[in-house]
Design goal:
The chain is an alpha/beta fold and 336 residues long. It has 2 domains: 9-142 and 291-319, Response regulator (Rossmann fold, 3-Layer(aba) Sandwich); 144-290, 3-Layer(aba) Sandwich (Rossmann fold). It is built from 10 helices and 12 strands. It has helices at 16-22, 50-66, 79-92, 108-116, 144-159, 187-200, 218-231, 243-255, 273-281, 295-306; strands at 39-44, 69-74, 96-99, 121-125, 138-141, 175-181, 206-213, 237-240, 265-270, 286-289, 314-316, 321-323. The strands form 2 sheets. It has a 6-stranded parallel beta sheet, sandwiched between helices. It is elongated and about 65 Å long.
Length: 336
């Protein structure tokens, strides 16, 4: 059977350093990773947003290109469904298991079962909290702590004179921030909140007056913002953990005659096309990219693991920050 070779080096910038490392320790040929016939069990958390759907397409398309047989399971936002899927992958005797963990905790037992079956596990997109790190091979995804920090760093540039350290506006009151948080217990919600607070903790006049989970859903972003606007008259900033909630919040603001991006500064994470369009219109002030196109790297790492190779513990995707101060005229279509 003719075996397919996975992806030229130019198509996988996030793991090119990893390949230099792994080529020294894997038993396969250093110039190519053979992937034809590998069976990969992949559990996705759901289809809650354009971002997530793009993430799913990226995995499915990359598997087809690599000649990898993909057993795909949509957990519909339930951890128990993911655990059942992983156990079904073990029973099927797949070569590699990869999954996007809905929450950080509660994975020890099923990962121990995978280890007993000698099936390597790749954690994708969201991180887990586990005492025995040897239960999984590595993590591929986004740097969510960095995303939170970048969001806060934008606000510092927005409100503080870098030369003097003084607030640019003549204001005695605090900068009042409302946070629309992601799913409770998920690594994006935990780390984006932590990174944001780590940076702003040095500036006591930034005050988070309200924080609540919107589960990364546009509908809940709208509901949350509608309720928030009933409770608070003076909001300076909305910090949203994803574009879906941001767009829902913008809908709620517009219904009340509030100008998003003008009356209230908006910082969002993901960089979906709809959010980039809102940034160009001036309705969002800053978007921190969260790169969903992880499929090619998932297949590459799965190929290495299936051959008994070793991968780095953490691999982050390449990501950028878009702000109102940038030239936004040449941003390529996002595809999600």
């Amino acid at each position: 059977m003719k075996r397919r070779v996975l992806f030229p080096a130019s198509s996988r910038p996030a793991v090119i350093t990893a390949l230099v490392f792994t080529a020294l320790v894997v038993s396969c040929a250093p110039k190519a990773i053979q992937t034809e016939g590998i069976i990969l069990g992949f559990s996705q958390i759901g289809a809650e947003s354009a971002w997530r759907n793009c993430n799913t397409r990226s995995v499915q398309e990359a598997a087809a290109q690599a000649g990898i047989q993909l057993l795909f399971f949509n957990a519909e936002q339930k951890q128990e469904n993911q655990i059942k899927a992983i156990r079904s992958f073990i029973a099927y005797q797949v070569d590699v298991i990869a999954f996007v963990p809905i929450v950080t905790d509660g994975w020890e037992n099923v990962l121990e079962e995978a280890r007993e079956a000698n099936i390597p596990v790749l954690i994708c997109d969201r991180e887990i909290n586990i005492d025995d790190g040897s239960l999984y091979a590595g993590y591929l995804g986004t740097n969510m702590l960095r995303q939170g920090r970048s969001s806060a760093e934008y606000l510092i540039k927005k409100f503080i004179n870098s030369a003097t350290g003084e607030f640019l506006e003549d204001r005695d009151a605090a900068v009042r921030i409302v946070e629309l948080s992601g799913t409770e217990g998920s690594s994006p919600a935990i780390l984006r909140a932590k990174g944001f607070r780590d940076v702003l903790s040095r500036y006591p006049r930034f005050e988070i007056i309200y924080s609540e989970s919107g589960d990364f859903l546009r509908s809940k972003g709208y509901e949350l913002m509608s309720n928030i606007l009933e409770q608070f008259d003076d909001i300076d900033v909305i910090y949203s953990h994803n574009d879906g909630m941001t767009l829902g919040a913008i809908d709620a603001m517009k219904e009340r005659g509030i100008k998003p991006g003008k009356d209230i500064i908006i910082v969002s994470i993901d960089a979906e096309q709809a959010a980039i369009d809102a940034l160009i219109r001036g309705e969002i002030n800053c978007i921190v990219e969260c790169n969903p196109k992880q499929g090619p790297d998932v297949m590459l790492l799965s190929g290495l693991l299936a051959k008994g190779g070793t991968i780095p513990r953490v691999i982050y995707m390449n990501e950028v920050v878009f702000t109102e101060w940038d030239d936004l005229s040449n941003i390529e279509p996002r595809g999600y």
